[in-house]
Amino acid sequence: MSGPSAAAAAERCALGIRGRPTAASSPAASLCRAKALRRPAALVASRRGPVSPRAIATTPADRASPDLAGRFTLDSNSELQVAVNPAPQGSLVVVDLVATNTSGSLILHWGALRPESRDWLLPSRRPDGTAMYKNRALRTPFVKSGNNSTLRIEIDDPAVQAIEFLVFDEAQNKW
């Protein structure tokens, strides 16, 4: 099965995570347009087409403890867990991604968001192995560890409000 191109997938669907999802948040109740993804402390989704999800992970500036920002089902027995961990001094935000029960090699297709722009910013601080994709996105491989795959992204630019990403499974050629 052949998946869509990264550009096509990025244009079709968006799922955003803002801080901690609330119990009152429901996917049906939180459908909204892409510009509404900038609202804090809610789980929001925007469907621009039926293809694949992308996600946004952020953390409020006043919180200095780790937080599981979201869990996403990747397939029948695999899950992506996203934790946002601000440093005590607040100058560095760490986003940890763990994909459980993975068999193939996963790639994170991502960029950073600023409040004043809908376009992705490509941060200069990048995990090892990161490659630029068409000067519009970054692609970073997950590190395989047993049945899981992990990735850590450190954001040191105070202008960055969030990272937005898609997960690509190279072995299955799908998003």
Task: Explain how this protein is built.
InterPro entries: GWD-like_N_Ig. The chain has one domain. Strand 7 and strand 8 form a beta hairpin. It is built from one helix and 13 strands. Strands 3, 7, 8, 9, 10 and 13 form a six-stranded antiparallel beta sheet that branches. The protein has 175 residues and is mainly beta. The N terminus is likely disordered.
Morphology: globular
Q: Quaternary arrangement of the chains shown?
A: single chain
Order of helices and strands: HEEEEEEEEEEEEE
**Rg value:** 15 Å
Estimate nothing, just give the exact number of structural domains.
1
Uncertain ranges:
1-53
Helix content: under 10%
> So how many helices?
1
Largest sheet at a glance? Answer: 6 strands, antiparallel
What would you call the structural class?
mainly beta
| % residues in beta strands | over 45%
Number of strands: 13
Distance between the termini: 11 Å
Mean pLDDT value: 69
Organism: Eleusine coracana subsp. coracana
GO molecular function, one term: metal ion binding
Protein name: Alpha-glucan water dikinase-like N-terminal Ig-like domain-containing protein
Keywords: Carbohydrate metabolism, Metal-binding
Task: Provide a compact summary of the structure.
By secondary structure, the protein is mostly beta strands.
